[in-house]
């Protein structure tokens, strides 16, 4: 029973976990609100609107991640949370709670956008993601690839063994989201985030091709996490860091 509780993470729940969940809810709400409302406040010309939308999403993620990173790790995305779960960096119950509050924050953001907006957005309805100039399977591949890039960047910037990084982690992750939108917006509407797609889809009652925005980002996130964790990360540096931390904890324990 104790092993089961440890596996799902029941022993982790404390006031700190609630602080993390609040941070994830608030962060995802702000990210989806700012990003989605940028798609309805611009012109109906898709070509000229891609760049502002891309920077709205990217800069929003970068700014919000700076605020909530210390509290929750700034996942703001089920694809990131599930990717960490798969490589053992997150417990099952906490991951499920993260996904729940991320989707709740996205739904609240989409609801407010729907109430204050004054018409359709860029030939789609109030931020609902769907394939535009490509087919369903092409859109799926694009979602996998651009989410793979975003999660790979997230993993590298969150790697505690990387002492060669001198840039702000949230800024670089935000730039990867901007790149994903610049590349994929006219193809798949570049979600990279199941919660970001779920909120507008639920509020507008439009789930056409919605499965793409769960299967694609989650697949890309899992592949990126596994790839970084087992192929790219310096395992020897990670072992040395863990050894130093274990040694420091042993020294801090008072002798009887």
From TrEMBL:
InterPro entries in the record: Aquaporin-like, Aquaporin_transptr, MIP, MIP_CS
Main location, first listed in the record: membrane
SUPFAM superfamilies: Aquaporin-like
Protein family membership: Belongs to the MIP/aquaporin (TC 1.A.8) family.
Alphabetically ordered keywords of this record: Cell membrane, Membrane, Transmembrane, Transmembrane helix, Transport
Superkingdom, natural source: Eukaryota
Protein name per UniProt: Aquaporin
